[in-house]
Amino acid sequence: MTDLDAMRRYDQLTERVYGERCLPSRTRDLILALGWVTLRDPRRHHPDVLVWDRTREVLNYDNRQMWETIAEDVPRYEHDWHADPTGCQAPMVRAKRLCGRSTTIGFAEFDPATGWMRDWGFCSRPRCREYMRPILERAEHSKDRAPEPIPNAGGRLPLFFAWNWESRYRKAMQVIRHRTEWEPPSYGLSADEWPSIPGQEKPQAFPKLRLVASDGAVIGRDTPALASSRST
Known about the structure:
The protein has helices spanning 3-19, 25-40, 51-59, 63-72, 126-139, 142-145, 157-160, 165-177; strands at residues 105-110, 117-122, 161-162, 208-210, 213-214, 217-218, 226-227. The chain has a three-stranded mixed β-sheet with strand order 3-4-7. The chain has eight helices and seven strands; from the N terminus they run H-H-H-H-E-E-H-H-H-E-H-E-E-E-E.
């Protein structure tokens, strides 16, 4: 890759990053910094300059801040507890709204297509309990029938760079979240590989830049090469 090619690739990367609506600010900054370090940094050809260390220097991050940024991008399903309605969810007979009274019974239902969870709650009114009955029957054992939840968070860094992200994500979960049970989703690490969800815009694949690494540690500073959008 010539310097002119690298400049064009960096411009394309920057344009795409700023056009991506679902990028948390720190994830965006990390992608731009990785792009700079691998494509435009005057020190990028120095044999002793490592991607991780140089990127941290460019961002003026300490090591913990770097791992926090990686942890924020770990591919995962996160239920939005604030999106669930509060109060009884049975519809009113004459009014176009939900009952809304304080609930006396609540349960979760898992979507058979996405594996995502929905919380239900109902009050003690007989007609609300009658409305609840078929929903409760449908929800029983729905978790056992549901597939692995499709991720709805993270997975943006692998959109742009082919690296050993699984190793990075595992360490970030251990260092920042103190969780060792995280496993990569079977759908893939990159958000463009996940199944489409109705009503949600799916990220588009971007020709990835390969960051040379082994077991999560950089072992060389070759000129970045374009990799397939399915590369890992």
